[in-house]
Amino acid sequence: PKKPVFAKIEYILLPDYNSTGTVKTLILNELRNADEICWVCRTEQEIKDFIADLILNDLLLIEKRLENIQKEQIKKYTPAREKDKSLMELCKKHLETGGVVSGLNLNAEQTVLMRNYQFFTAKPIAFILNVPEGENNQNCQPPAGYLCIPICISLEEELSLLDETDRHKFNAEM
Questions:
Q1: Distance of CA 174 to the CA centre of its chain
Q2: How many degrees, rounded to 5, is the angle at CA 76 between CA 73 and CA 77?
Q3: Which residue of 1, 86, 109, 140 has the smallest Cβ count within 10 Å?
């Protein structure tokens, strides 16, 4: 009989993203290897700034790839590299207008080519917006394809400290 292989989920708690310098670089390196990103933030502006950073890093990746394609095409022209170049230019154009790679409508061939790259904005992202108690911010508007969940983390922490019966009573009253 074949040995079963179970799914594995790893969570990595990263330091404050608003750091600068080498800390931010280390965080981005960890995020590049992630399959999805779940990010807890305090304001919608932090969401916009985070996405802007991801877009900027994707644009840097595209610029570097376009330079490499150009060098490789000079040595030996291949139609595959030309398709790769057109895909990179499509992504670049979309990112420069503030879009995210996950929002692109790609054909089957482009989708296969896209698997070679680890674009930040192509990853599924869930934003957990930490709102103050009593304030329910349902107007959180992340870019298309991303999820934003407003939650009062301090209230959730208080609920987790309740014993089982008190927690059930509280939930029943809600």
A1: 33
A2: 60
A3: 1
What whole-number distance in Å separates Cα of residue 155 and Cα of residue 42? 15
Q: CA-to-CA distance for 76 and 72, rounded, in angstroms?
A: 6
Q: Give the pLDDT score at 153.
A: 75
Q: In what order do the strands lie in the sheet with 147-151?
A: 37-41, 125-130, 147-151
End-to-end CA distance of the chain: 50
Q: What is the per-residue pLDDT across 116-135, written as a single tens digit (0 to 9) for each?
A: 898 999 988 888 888 877 66
CA 86/CA 126 separation, integer angstroms? 30
Q: Are 58 and 123 in contact (CB under 8 A)?
A: no
- Whether 64 has a pLDDT exceeding 90, the answer reads yes
Q: How far is CA 73 from the centre of its chain?
A: 32
